[in-house]
Amino acid sequence: MLSEHPSDVKFEIGHVLFIDIVGYSKLLIHEQLEYLEKLREIVRATETFRTAQREEKLERLPTGDGGALVFHTSPEAPVKCAMEIARELKKHPELRVRMGVHSGPVKEVTDLSEQGNIAGAGINIAQRVMDCGDAGHILVSKRVADDLENYAQWRPVLHDLGTCEVKHGISLALFNLYSDEIGNSEQPKKFRTAERKIDIVTPAAPRKSIAVLPFENLSEDKANVYFADGIHEEILTRLSRIRDLKVISRTSTQRFKNTAEQIPDIAKQLGVATILEGSVRKAGDKVRVHVQLIDAENDAHLWAERYDRQLDDIFEVESDIAGKIAEALQATLTGAERHAIAARPTKSTEAHELYLKGRYHWRNFYAPGYERVREYFEQAVALDASYAPAYSGLSLYYAWAAANAIFPPDVWPLAEEYLRKSLSLDDTWPEAYNTLAAVEIYYKRNWAAAERAFHRGMELDPNFGDLHSHYGLCLSYLGRFDEAIAQTERAMQLDPFFPGTNVHYGTLLFFSRQYDRAAAQLAKTLDLYPDNAAAHEYFGNVCAKRGMSHEAITHWCSALNLNGRSEDARVLEQTFKAAGFDAAVRTLGERQLEELDARRTRGEYVAPAHYVFTDVKRGNLEGALAWLPKMAEEPDWFALQMRVNPMLDPLRSDPRFGEILDTVTLKN
Questions:
Q1: Is residue 317 a contact partner of residue 279, using CB atoms and an 8 Å limit?
Q2: Which end of the chain is more exposed for a tag (fewer CB within 10 A), N or C?
Q3: Tell me: the pLDDT tens digits for 441-490?
Q4: What is the DSSP string of 213-227?
């Protein structure tokens, strides 16, 4: 599957209405024919059906007792059609019909009889949605319900049912659509069973695998949450250095902070056999750490310990916990790994606390206080000039912002200076190699050196999900998509709930033009994080490339609203309704151009790439080509994605594009 070539993939997102007659097999033969023909008449007479058919935006898949309608218009179409059918069925009580609606990947295929057919997950899941209902029910998947939630008129008729187990252990979150006029308000029988346990067959978790749940802050001073978070992260970091263990990244375990979910359920979601729980109480220069290691399968305690220590003994506590866990899980440790988990990076407890505060604010990057990351790390190295992780934190602060074109390129030398200092003090700190890879590929354009940095970082910390994710994204710039996907899927195993990794996966699938897979991944991301603006924006880009204009506008509007640009979203939606897709995109481009110019007037840094993408939206290809050489020169990720980003396709036929692209060279 990983080696599947993009040209072999012909899936599109279809909006599917699946219909069947309940009790069809018990009818007499002549009744079956009569009922089926009557149902077909009712369906064909609906306004939604006729409109979609006239616009050639409809496909039909007959079945023995009903059929599927695939609309290539909007998520509302199958629901409107279902409501029209339901109103007409009230005149025919003998016709006991149920319906299911889902949006998902579909494609045209040729079956064994050499007849045209439709296949794909969109069809299969729509049928399973329908199968959960009884006569009169119109059930819709959560995916469809989320789309409909954008429109006020649908909210009163959508009723959350929870989850229903369907074939092959899959569970679906479903909504019942009904009003006083249509639908069936009764709870479906499948939701009334005494036991609806979902038994999903998943591969057994490796015996030597662990997730460290966020530590509870028991300090009287609740501001000490940074300290509890820091101890949690440092124990996890020490464990992740052990190659014989599978260790889930912090960003995914954070999802279960203050959760009511049971340990076995958490372990199943994270794919691990054991869970570490803990708490931290800090009072002055004293600290108490309590931990317990739990076998997730039977919820039994494998080991527990309480540490009452002075604050300057905290590194010994972390090392002891990591060693005891490794012993309990019978993990084999090399000499280097024993040294790594026993490391004491600073002798200054005050510098360490400042470092933990910097890490805490870095993890909450998008919250107010971003500059405090830099300030805390600077204060830490001022107190201890030999504190390698603090220098690494400073280098990451500058390199990340420069690579993403948030800061101007002139901060790269500072990022490199702090990085070299960190490595000179400790060349075994894994995080430094992620930053080194960024410096080498974005700033120095030296791919060979960047790849060496990735590999060295993975040797030092085989469980560092960020490294695999970043490496996968960089491989995608070179068109090495099979390798990119393999690296990113490894990152997903180590950090399944991190929004960044999930969005990166969708991004590189988009770059590889596997639009159906990109859509599926981004839909999954939005199921987890419905307020992730980047996921909405990329999903909109995917939809635009597949000709799904309504969905593209919907997701772009969501991204704009989440980014505080509600007026742009309102104008985009209004223009789309009044003048169509192309006009809406041009209008959005014009508004974005005004914003970019205003930022430059205020003296803010604006990456040339933003002007390129904005001019492409505006249809001003000459303007985009004029900005393109500047985009190619900038040491950021936008320059490197020029070769693969489908959003630049309108420029590729111009010979100047190829000439400019040739200037973006990487040393090998």
A1: no
A2: N
A3: 999 999 999 999 999 999 999 999 999 999 999 999 999 999 999 999 99
A4: PPPEE--SSGGGHHH
